[in-house]
Every structure is written in C-alpha cells, then in structure tokens.
Design goal:
single chain; 317 residues; alpha/beta; Peroxisomal Thiolase, Chain A, domain 1; five-stranded mixed sheet; 25% strand; binds acetyl coenzyme *A
C-alpha cells in the first residue's frame, strides 16, 4: 500500500479531544445480570469498566469542540467534516449532518463506516482532501455500541461501550505527518461479526481474535515498509482497543514492546471507531508524543477491515 506521494500537500494534527459518557458500568455491575465475573473479564480482555450513554452526535460534538479549542481553529475555517461511525443516530441523514449544524461548520460533512478501523480510514481520507485543496479538516471517530449490544449475551456485552475522539488536521508547508498508510478489507468474513439493521452485534469471538492479530500485523507491516521505517523506530503504537491480549500478541509479532503501546481499554472497553482516537488523545495529553516521533496507528474491525498509518509527529522536515 502507498507511501504518501512526495508531491502531495502535507498535513498535521493540530488539535485533539475526547468524550466519554458519564455513566460507568463496572464488571461487577455486569456480573449481577450475566453469568460472568470481574476476574474473567479482566483476564480475558483487560477491561475493568466501560462508559455507556449518549448519542453518536452528542459525543461527537463534545469531542470535536475540545479538538477545535485545542487547535485554536474557528469552526468557520473547517473545510470538511469526516465522521467515522458504525452506529449512526439515523439511517438518513448521516450523523455528521447534526454534528455540522451543532458546531456551526459551513462545510461538507459525511460519515465513514469501516467499523473499528474507521478512524484510520477517515484520517486517510482527510489527508486526501488536504492533498487536493482543503486546508482544515475535522476528523471524528465515535461509536455508541451499547445501543446495538445484546445485554443478555455475555460473549459481547462484556466488551462493547461508547465514546468519541476527534482531531483537527491542518495543511502545512512541506511534507506532512503521514508517511504511509494502508487500508484493507475482506468482505468474505462478514458473518464473523455483524449487526443487522435494528438488531444486535453477533460475533464469533475466537475466530475474530485469531484474524485480528494477523490482519493488524499485516497492515502495520505494509505501512512500515511503505514508510521505509522499522518497528523498532516506532515511539508509540496506537492500536484498536478490542482486547489487551490482541494488542499484546500483535505488538509481540511486530517487535514493539508493550510499554510503547497506548491503551485505554481498561476503563473504556471497545468503543469501535472511537478507540484509536481515545487512546491517541490519552497519550498526547500524557505528554507521551514529541515532535519528530514516529507514531503507528493500527486497527481492525468488522468487514473484516484493517487500517494503519505511520505518522511523523509534527510533520517531516
Ligand atoms: N464470562 C465468563 N465466561 C465466559 C464469557 C464471559 N463473558 N464468555 C465466554 N465465557 C466462557 C466460554 O463459554 C468458555 O467456557 P468453556 O471453556 O466452558 O467452553 C470459556 O469462557 C472460554 O471462552 P473463549 O471464547 O475461548 O474465551 P476467549 O479467551 O477466546 O475470550 C473473547 C473471548 C474475549 C470474546 C475473545 O475471543 C475476543 O476478544 N475475541 C475478539 C473480539 C473482538 O475483538 N471483537 C471486536 C472486533 S472489532 C469491531 O468491529 C466491533
């Protein structure tokens, strides 16, 4: 998959923000109604609690406001809004319409659905928009999986939750941050993980786990190769927050120590499109990323999609 074209106008992330619902659901809360335990959930997934509530638009508006404030960009300057979600508030129109209106943006707005890889897809599309003329793009990843989770199914109820993360991407002089990117999908695996319209998520957990590790590693390796960097040069990997054991297995195969992984799933659960930006925002706010650092984003999800991107933080010199 492609390294960014040398002539393309570059971009950098200049603002970021996140939003989580206020309602906390602990493993102990779930164990009151499901045949499960805090110990099992923590050991098998790494999740201790999750946040539940709000609509996709509400959470998006909150995280986007924080990202805009951080960047100092006025909403009127935004040239496009790309919202990644697999749980839109309505079938029509796109949830981004409501977000665009609430934020008083005066630009085009659209949703992207690539399940849990969606934020990487959206960020890639945003870089493409900047390459062809946009100057400032708002990218949001939000999901409210609690609305499509069957709370009587212990196979899925212990994993999924709600949240949002957003970034402001601005055109810059010279090469931008995106060294290389990769997006993949394998639609033949649709039945492993799906939710019908109006229905709940069905998941073949074991098989999803097995494939997740493989496709994350494959996608990350394609991006690393295209960027011309090796895994040992990566300062921070920001993986999809599905299961700590998936992250550990993928990092081990990539040769990236776990200390370099950004993880928030212990208190967020799996928030699909929101999970990579939530982990990225957490790492940025903790001061874990410095100008010039190489950051690897990598996700996988239903579809089965995968997406990865290698960023040189602050842009290349
Ligand atoms: N609580 C207690 N016991 C449970 C639970 C639970 N919530 N769920 C399953 N078990 C039991 C099983 O019945 C089984 O019992 P048995 O040994 O008597 O048969 C035992 O625990 C082990 O079950 P496994 O399914 O083998 O457990 P595993 O270690 O594979 O963990 C899990 C299950 C957490 C679902 C894991 O397979 C996983 O994370 N898979 C990937 C899921 C994922 O990433 N999904 C998101 C994709 S991204 C997106 O697009 C949303």
């Amino acid at each position: 998959m492609p390294a960014t074209s040398p002539g393309a106008r570059g971009a950098t992330i200049t603002g970021w923000g996140s939003a989580l619902p206020s309602k906390v659901v602990t493993n102990a809360d779930l164990a009151r109604t499901l045949d499960t335990s805090d110990e099992w959930i923590k050991e098998r997934s790494g999740i201790a609690e999750r946040r539940v509530g709000g609509s996709t638009a509400e959470l998006s508006i909150e995280s986007a406001r924080r990202a805009l404030a951080k960047s100092g960009v006025d909403p009127s300057e935004i040239d496009a809004l790309v919202l990644s979600t697999t749980t839109p508030d309505r079938t029509v129109p796109a949830t981004s319409a409501r977000v665009q209106n609430a934020l008083a943006l005066t630009c085009g707005a659209f949703d992207v659905n690539a399940a849990c890889s969606g934020f990487v897809y959206a960020l890639t599309v945003a870089h493409g928009l900047i390459a062809i003329g946009a100057r400032k793009v708002l990218v949001i990843g939000t999901d409210t999986l609690s609305r499509i989770t069957d709370w009587t199914d212990r196979n899925t109820a212990v994993l999924f939750a709600d949240g949002s993360g957003a970034v402001v991407l601005e055109a810059c002089d010279g090469p931008g941050q995106l060294l290389a990117w990769d997006i993949d999908s394998d639609g033949s695996a649709e039945e492993l993980l799906y939710s019908d319209i109006g229905g709940h998520i069905h998941m073949e957990g074991k098989e999803v786990f097995r494939r997740a590790v493989r496709i994350m590693v494959d996608s990350a390796q394609k991006s690393l190769t295209a960027a011309g960097v090796s895994a040992e040069n990566i300062s921070l990997v920001v993986p999809h927050q599905a299961n700590i054991r998936i992250i550990e297995a993928a990092c081990e195969r990539l040769g990236i120590p776990m200390e370099r992984a950004a993880t928030v799933l212990r208190y967020t659960g799996n928030t699909s499109s929101a999970s990579i930006p939530l982990a990225l925002v957490d790492a940025l706010d903790a001061g874990r990323v410095h100008a010039g650092d190489l950051v690897l984003l990598v996700g996988f999800g239903a579809g089965m999609t995968a997406g990865s991107a290698v960023l040189r933080w602050g842009g290349s010199t």
